[in-house]
Design a protein that fits this description.
It is a single chain. About 35% of the residues lie in helices and about 15% in strands. It contains 14 helices and 14 strands. Strands 2-10-9-6-5-3-4 form a seven-stranded mixed sheet, sandwiched between helices. A three-stranded antiparallel sheet has the order 11-12-14, covered by helices on one side. The longest helix is centred in the C-terminal third of the chain and has 19 residues. It is globular. The chain binds ligand T4K. The site of ligand T4K has 23 residues, from helix 4 and helix 5. GO terms for molecular function: pyridoxal phosphate binding; transaminase activity.
């Protein structure tokens, strides 16, 4: 194990940090470089780089089979996939979303002239609170976007009941939840549709990429049109559309990574177990758990720095960064406190006490296949030294 120094030691002595190279949250996992190179080589031979190519079609079929869902419509990224899903569902007016999420969930609405209305979360799950959703419904509400934050399922049944009762559309931002399940059904099969992200920082990536998955034939057809400018064949545009296509080289990366998805999840799970064992033993710290009766991807190691901790979240973050552990404050300070929402709805925070509180406490720690041996133990020792060693 490496020597642990405080930021003060580092400042005074100019000592080297615990890790020579920065450890990033979201360092990309690469399944098989060889498979990727082979598929990319075949792509060059074919001279078919985009527009519904064979790699894209194979990737969509494999993702749909993996999730047990009828349609996978792959896109250039998760944000465009959200925008296209929102448009295909015909959402307008106001749509209820959590504020404790990545900003793309809200931007995908605002970008299309729809008002994101922020509902508070359940502090136990970090997911949108159905009671809060009910409070935010107005005559202008047309839909709800649940987010499966950290890959832990949103309250799917309760949200569906609210949607049915008020005749609202329900879709999910499942950007964190590829490979996760709820009630033994893979996430991807809930609501009218679910949106995945395959960004480089996700445990499973296509460099950039995303998809909408759905059981609904008509919705899938509409989204396939929309992602390709509305073309229904040469010279025949039958719908407004955009360019949301996933390109072949991204599909190749997806195929190369799909073969190794279980290895990546196993590495994430090992890291998560070790972090949880070591950090939960430190007073005032708790690593968020996952339901072991379900499939999880364990891609986010979320550390709750509680009030009882002798150091604040920001103090611990400074200690970690000084040691080259580039942990993150996801999703601080809450989307409602980012622009344009901060100016548009300056009082939104009044309805979001749990979001405000939680966003102050969380740190996301590095994980994945690229972590050096013993890195988790070293990170835990850094935190222990900063908290217990300081008493
Ligand atoms: N909905 C939700 C709930 C989401 O979390 C996201 C994306 C979306 C929707 C939208 O999906 P996409 O349109 O992105 O497909 C990162 C990701 O860019 C973003 O995809 C992700 N969520 C979000 C949670 O994290 P930032 O602003 O933290 O990215 P950045 O550039 O700071 O990178 C994060 C860390 O990863 C850094 O420490 C560097 C490291 N990194 C990054 C890249 C790109 C690498 O080591 N290698 C790389 O290639 O948003």
């Amino acid at each position: 194990m490496k020597t642990i120094r405080t930021p003060l030691d580092l400042a005074i002595n100019g000592a080297a940090p615990a890790f020579a190279e920065p450890l990033h949250v979201g360092r990309p996992n690469v399944g098989s470089r060889d498979t990727f190179m082979k598929l990319a080589g075949e792509m060059f031979d074919r001279r078919w780089f985009s527009n519904n190519g064979p790699l894209l079609q194979e990737f969509e079929n494999r993702v749909a089979a993996y999730l047990g869902v009828k349609h996978c419509v792959a896109m250039c990224n998760g944000t465009i996939a959200l925008e296209i899903a929102i448009r295909a569902l015909g959402l307008t007016g106001e749509v209820i979303v959590p504020s404790y999420t990545f900003v793309a969930t809200a931007h995908a609405l605002h970008w299309q002239g729809i008002t994101p209305v922020f509902a508070d979360i359940d502090p136990a799950t970090h997911n949108i609170d159905p009671a809060a959703v009910r409070r935010m419904i107005t005559p202008r509400t047309t839909g709800i976007i649940g987010v499966h934050l950290w890959g832990r399922p949103a309250p799917v049944d309760e949200l569906q009941a609210i949607a049915n009762e008020h005749r609202l559309q329900l879709m999910f931002d499942a950007a964190h939840a590829f490979g996760c399940s709820h009630k033994n059904s893979m996430i991807g099969r809930f609501g009218r549709c679910e949106v995945l992200s395959f960004h480089a920082t996700k445990f499973f990536n296509t460099f950039e990429g995303g998809a909408v998955v759905t059981e609904d034939d008509d919705l899938a057809d509409a989204m396939r049109l929309m992602r390709n400018f509305g073309f229904a064949g040469y010279d025949n545009v039958i719908h407004p559309g955009t360019n949301g296509k996933m390109i072949e080289v991204c599909a190749a990366m997806g195929l190369a990574n799909l073969d190794h998805i279980d290895t990546v999840i196993a590495a994430n799970q090992r890291n998560h177990n070790t972090y949880k064992l070591l950090l939960d033993a430190i007073p005032g710290l708790e690593v968020l758990g996952y339901n072991n009766n379900e499939h999880n991807n364990f891609q986010y190691v979320v550390l709750d720095v509680q009030e009882a901790c002798l150091r604040t979240r920001d103090e611990l973050l400074a200690v970690l960064v000084a040691e080259n552990v580039l942990a993150r404050k996801y999703f601080w300070p809450g989307v409602h406190r980012m622009q344009p929402y901060r100016d548009l709805y300056p009082h939104a925070g009044l309805m979001l006490p749990e979001t405000t509180e939680l966003a102050k406490r969380m740190i996301v720690l590095p994980t994945g296949t690229t972590l050096p041996d013993d890195a988790v133990e070293t990170i835990a020792a850094i935190l222990e030294q900063a908290i217990v060693g300081s008493t």
